[in-house]
Amino acid sequence: MEVTKVSNATRVFKIGEVETKALRGVNLSIENGEFTALIGPSGSGKTTLLQLIGLLDKPTTGNVTVNGQDATNLNRNQRADLRKNAIGFVFQFFALIPTLTAYENVEMPLLLNGTKPAQRKARVNQMLEAVGLSDRAHHRPDQLSGGQQQRVAVARALATNPKLILADEPTANLDTENGKQVMEIMQKLNKETGVTFVFATHDPRVISYAKRVVTLRDGLIVENNGKSPK
Amino acid sequence: MYQTFKLAYRNLWRNKTRSLLSALAVGVGMSLLLLMVSMLEGEMRGALQNTIRLQSGHLQIRPSSYDENKISLKWEDLIADPDQVVEKVRSLSQVTVAAPRLIASGILTLRDESKGVQILGIEPDSEANQPFRDGLTAGEFLKADDREGILIGQLLADKLNLKVGDAVNLLVTTSNGDIDEQLFTVRGVFSTRTPGFDENTLLMPLAKAQAITATENHVSTIFVLLQDSEQAEPVAQALQSSNLKILTWREQNDFVVQFEDYANAFFIVLYLIVLGITATVVTNTLVMAVFERTREIGILAAIGMKGRGIMAQFLAEAALLATGGVISGLILGSVMVYFATVKGFYIGDFGITGELFEDRIYAYLTLENTINLSIITYIITLVASLYPASLAARMEPVEALHGIGD
Hints:
The complex is a heterodimer.
Chain A: E1 2-15, E2 18-31, E3 35-39, H1 46-53, E4 61-66, E5 69-70, H2 76-86, E6 87-90, H3 102-112, H4 117-130, H5 146-159, E7 164-168, H6 176-193, E8 196-201, H7 204-207, E9 212-217, E10 220-224
Parallel strand pairs in A: 3-8, 3-9, 6-7, 7-8
Antiparallel strand pairs in A: 1-2, 1-4, 4-5, 9-10
Chain B: H1 2-14, H2 16-56, E1 59-63, E2 79-80, H3 82-90, E3 95-110, E4 113-122, H4 130-134, E5 136-139, E6 149-153, H5 154-160, E7 167-173, E8 179-190, H6 195-198, E9 201-205, H7 206-213, E10 218-219, E11 221-226, H8 232-239, E12 244-248, H9 249-252, H10 254-292, H11 294-302, H12 307-342, E13 345-346, E14 360-361, H13 367-384, H14 386-393, H15 397-400
Parallel strand pairs in B: 4-9, 6-8
Antiparallel strand pairs in B: 1-11, 1-12, 2-10, 3-4, 3-7, 3-11, 5-8, 6-9, 7-8, 13-14
């Protein structure tokens, strides 16, 4: 079953008089349970594509469907709702709220979707255990290493049990060992829970984990799992 | 809600000094307003109480022809047979003091100096004279049968360089328009701490005042004090008669009453100006916080927090700043108001026609003013946070998260 579908998506940024075409007509379908890498050099459009799929941005033309729902005409709040229920994010920078503990960061999306306290507690503990950070639950981000912070971000992304996790360069700021740990955790969760992962990267070590690799260049998909797009 | 405030508290605590200074700015603004409003309230209240105890009483009974703009000694403008009226007034349970008084004008001359004065003919034994008795600074109080003695205000004594025992000449216009003149002896000097009164007033026994002005058993007014100032209107109603005019303290002090209404309206404008300035500090603090936390706003939006949730986050921070501001304002304000209530501020000889201001202002803070000011401070601080809060709420997640890749 299709988790997300991007059809003929373009994204043009206009800064003053200058137009930059970040995406020039992208078609991409991601099936349930995939572990897919979006690769390509800097400026190829990986992050822009991830932002469109994550409903953080709207395509200039074309459509994005998430969980079978066309997001083209959704307003800000409807997109926020769809994000809250269907999508988890892991960012390149360790995107945790610095004033909250690891536990509270993981709890935040559960608070937003109104999960009851008892279930919330169980779920947060379960997720922290899954990323191996139960003993760091009450540490603030500045008391955690980069790798630990990124694992908390993974736990938070998965807390509400979304269908799709989008990770933008999740290992870019990590050393080899921590990068490996994060990728292994993501791979394990993909296998165990069937949650779909799409991650943008240009790190060859990360690419090796992917089951499917989509290559972008100059705003177009130039290779889809070893094949040229139709 | 709890989570929102928990996060707000921690966010404010991230930049402790800035948050504390912002709350303090609100507090200082509020405390200064508390001081100002309590000083004005104290001033008005003091002037009113002073005017009531020295001049207007809670009620004054005058003949129906009474004109407040002139001091008339014509018999038709005076109350004849005042004892009968006094008797009737005293029979009312709300009345504590009813004293007949004759008011005349005269000129006090000493060697080559002269000074216009208001002569107050009083019954020396009446309780109505307590402020003068308490305020005696030299000599002794008048006796009812004294035919040559007068009391003068301290400032009048200073001006004419008079002291107890000195003889002084007094010129008086009588009821039939003639001028009479007599030598009097200063028996005592009083101070009511009210420059406007002490500079112009001369007291003498009522019988002597009636004799020198040829008003024979007539008085200008009956000065009435009540147990409670709020009883003035019903008592005035009960005493209504065709040949007498009953004036309440409100009617006689309409300037102060009106001025207080005017001052209250003026203070609302002043509140807005002062708190508007302190509110800009709050706006500034929160705008800085929005820009510092742009990426966090993006993260919250990415995980599904809607605009109103983000807005609530900043409003909660403003609410905490406002609470800190109001609490510090109340503490600082209490200290300042306490000082101003106990010590007062010297203002010297300040007068408005018809009102008797003391030479010091003492603050008087009412619960109503305190509550009003706290609420206004709170609301203005919240209003000041609307701009930064909506700025945060309107941020596009993708822009807020900028820098997440290519």
